């Protein structure tokens, strides 16, 4: 394979998943290792994903961190019922899942959202607890970089019934103590509105080291006390991290979430070193010698 020109091999390897490139392909031979460690392959993968909006000297770092820009709220639109939602408060007739646009409602402003949660005539709420380490955001990333945490929630009232709505998001320590929180006022939508969707957003920044969990909670009820599901409607909740451009040139280590926990190190001299923290990858004999090993 060493007879294959580098530019051809870059185009071939760019079609493979990133973890296969780092875990498998760079072990094949020196040529493959140099390509996986180099910039051209990762610049091409960034271009394929649309991540090439800024110039950088470390396309590999950009690729992996940009891929982590995902919604940490699971099942935000009720497609899986109440799966992943905890501390569900079902007062009145409780929460109900309905199809958009619903009675006396409007279509969602963006495509892809088909359902929403509807509350009742007494207070209904639900929450999710996000474990950041489990999601792949390592302690060093959270403590040193402190990426912005963007929260978005969508809510609406029926056009024939007003509603109340509230959002509370807390950043928690490893012992689940509240480090900082955002809590909206109780928002009131009067009766006889158009039933359109409203977006509430908040961004956490400069929150200090030690954040390990995020608790997201929202809820509401109707304003007319009618039996059934005439209360606030919520859907498409989201929680994402936004990394600063400074991170792509200065940050050195972050964890990649997969079946086995891993840490990719992107230092100036060991750009492609990979540390495994799961001894099962190497077998018992290797694990007994050292539970952390590096592929150099």
Write a concise synopsis of the structure shown.
By secondary structure, the protein is α+β, with helices and mostly antiparallel strands. The chain has helices at 6-13, 18-23, 30-37, 39-49, 59-67, 139-145, 247-250, 284-289, and strands at 86-90, 96-99, 115-118, 124-131, 148-156, 163-172, 178-183, 187-189, 197-204, 213-222, 233-242, 253-256, 262-265, 274-276, 293-295.
Describe the structure.
Mean pLDDT is 80; it is low at 245-296. The protein has two domains: 6-68 and 246-295, Monooxygenase, CATH 1.20.1280; 86-242, Galactose-binding domain-like (Jelly Rolls), CATH 2.60.120.260. 20% of the residues lie in helices and 31% in strands. It is α+β, with helices and mostly antiparallel strands and 296 residues long. Helix 1 (6-13) crosses helix 3 and helix 4 (39-49) runs parallel beside helix 5. Strands 1, 4, 6, 7, 8 and 10 form a six-stranded antiparallel β-sheet that branches. Strands 2-3-11-5-9 form a five-stranded antiparallel β-sheet, with no helix packed on it. It has a four-stranded antiparallel β-sheet with strand order 12-13-14-15, with no helix packed on it. The protein is elongated and about 75 Å long. The protein has eight helices and 15 strands.
């Amino acid at each position: 394979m060493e007879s294959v020109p580098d530019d051809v091999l870059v185009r071939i390897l760019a079609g493979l998943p990133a973890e296969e490139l780092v875990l498998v392909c760079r072990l094949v031979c020196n040529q493959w290792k140099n390509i996986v460690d180099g910039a051209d392959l990762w610049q091409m993968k960034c271009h394929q994903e649309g991540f090439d909006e800024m110039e950088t000297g470390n396309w590999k770092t950009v690729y992996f961190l940009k891929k982590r820009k995902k919604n940490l709220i699971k099942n935000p639109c009720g497609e899986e019922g109440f799966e992943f939602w905890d501390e569900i408060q079902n007062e009145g007739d409780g929460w109900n899942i309905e199809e958009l646009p619903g009675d006396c409602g409007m279509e969602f402003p963006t495509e892809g959202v088909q359902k929403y949660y509807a509350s009742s005539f007494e207070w209904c709420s639900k929450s999710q607890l996000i474990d950041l380490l489990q999601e792949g955001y390592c302690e060093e990333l959270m403590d040193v970089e402190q990426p912005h945490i963007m929260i978005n929630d969508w809510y609406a009232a029926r056009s024939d019934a007003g509603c109340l709505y509230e959002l509370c998001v807390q950043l928690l320590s490893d012992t689940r103590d509240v480090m900082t929180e955002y809590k909206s006022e109780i928002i009131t939508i009067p009766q006889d509105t158009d039933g359109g969707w409203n977006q509430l957003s908040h961004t956490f920044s400069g929150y200090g080291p030690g954040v390990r969990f995020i608790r997201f909670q929202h809820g509401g009820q109707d304003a007319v006390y009618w039996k059934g599901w005439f209360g606030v409607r919520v859907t498409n909740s989201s929680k994402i991290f936004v990394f600063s451009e400074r991170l792509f040139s200065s940050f050195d280590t972050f964890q990649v979430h997969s079946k086995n926990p891993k840490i990719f190190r992107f230092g100036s001299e060991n750009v492609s070193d990979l540390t495994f923290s799961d001894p099962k990858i190497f077998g018992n004999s290797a694990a007994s010698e050292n539970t952390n090993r590096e592929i150099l």
